[in-house]
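Researcher: Please translate sequence to structure tokens.
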Amino acid sequence: MYDVVPGDVEGAFKRVAKFSELLLKPKKAEELAEKISLPALRSAGLSVAHNERDLWLDQLLERQKTMSSTPKSNLVFSGEDLIRGYRIDVREVNRQANGSVTFGPWRSLCFRHGEHRLAPNAPPVLTYNDEGWISLGATEGDVEPPPSVNRQIKPNALQPAPGVTPHIQSRAAMPNVAQSRIAALAAQAAVGAIRVVPKPILHIYESLFRWAGWSLCVPRPGKDLNPQDNPDYSGHAPIPGIPMQVHFTPIPGTLQRLRFGKQYQFRARVVDLAGNSLPVTYSPPENPLFVTDVNDGFYDRFEPVSSPVMVLTQPTKGPKPVEQPLLPGDFPARLVIRTLNLETPQDGSAGPATPISIRHIVPPRVSQELSEQHGMFDSLTPPQAHQLMTDKDLDLGEQWQSDPTSPIGRKAVKIESPEFVVPANQHITVPYLPDPLAAGVTFSELPGTTGNRLLLQPFAGNWPNRVGFKIMIEAGTAPPVFQGDTLKIFVPPGEHIRAEASCFFPPGSENLMGLWRWIQERMGHQSEGSSMLALVRQGRHWLLTPNRDLDLVHALQQPLFNPVWASLSNPTQTSQEVPADHVRTFGDTHAYLYGTLAVHRGST
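Model: Translation complete:
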């Protein structure tokens, strides 16, 4: 009846719906991308879903309607009639290597500390600790009939008639219900119906609640996003006419940590109309009917590990960098070198050569919340964790600047430059929180590689102070080699090579990925499992570690060599090669040239 669902199901549904609309929209051929993929899923906590919740609520409303028409002397209430809400508890499930299962203590997700004030920033007049609860949330809306029905229905015809029971449907069933309702309205209008009164529809989710590592009864600290794209503190708005501000915070030490790779179990305590319930310390006999399934509740990460970030460099001359903008054809992920062909005298009037091209490569950025759910702050004290979060709240190309008006005494400002570049003789220690699962970079299809044509290069430094490295291309045919902090890649003259770069996992961390768990459950013990695991660990699985293209170009000022006639034959004497001036019969005023002209394809 109840299932624990990982990930952001509702958000995934909306993104897939928009994705399908994009595919159905007619497009020109040139507007279609070469690669297209489904929207990525998000790790948004664990949800407990009530299966067929719409039917349950429909029955509940029918019962309430029956009770409202029953004489008071004959009313008999059951426990379900006196429920005001639920208090949710969670505990960690620990699976041992020998197969045994142990459980952590139950922790309430509804404990809170309340403060009442008569004015903003005034001292509280009342403070207390209590437990909140969660209750049913629904929205109501009418089904809009087609225009043909509107013309035959009175303006007030769509208002709910007195005594009509609202019709309940879950979100997933709404489209079909709306279509059938509209079809019924059209049929009634076609036979001359004067008044059509559809039942109003309540929109509900099958999810009872979603726990994302915070309290279910207290808002998260910090600013909230709003439609105006102007984050602000929502707070608790006072009730009109009552000059009282109420502010709730979690009671320290009461919340359960939400971490990737862990398993959790939930239970609900009923809250009656007076706000009473059993305490969180209540320990009934273990009964599977009272808690969620012990085989559910695995919390995994669904966000893929993004591809590594490419950063432009400045060439150096001595101790100071030399300003040099991007050359034609250069992009962050396209490295171009230009060399001269010494055997071709026309190169003497060509532009200057650029024998090397360098890029910094650094791990991708993730949010503070994702880092927290990886447990990266668990070993720090709260002040240390807060300091780290604020210090690492920069993006590439930003720096701190003193600001007395800021709550932290500083603000992030953009470095004034058309392009963010880093001198080639410097290292990049990322100014943000790097992805804990980005241990290094997997390069594939690099020139000079053999076998599986893969090269794995780890990042230096420990989280969060990951240090990037450099890649440099230069002319040559040798295999790639890592020297110092630079991966040297040799590109033959006139070649344009498309390689790929993705991130790979720390050993064993692939088991934290939710999609990998689903793939394993689907494949079972199939023979492809070992080869699939190798791809995942090498960072070569598109669902888990998507790659980015790297264009490696060795451009020449002139073709690598002059065109050469490899063969030239007389069409009347196909078996004998003759000079070009002989490929003409007696008396003809034209000649046919048949043969093979050898050119260098990459540079011609």
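Researcher: Any highlights?
Model: Residues 144-196, 316-323 have pLDDT under 50 and may be disordered.
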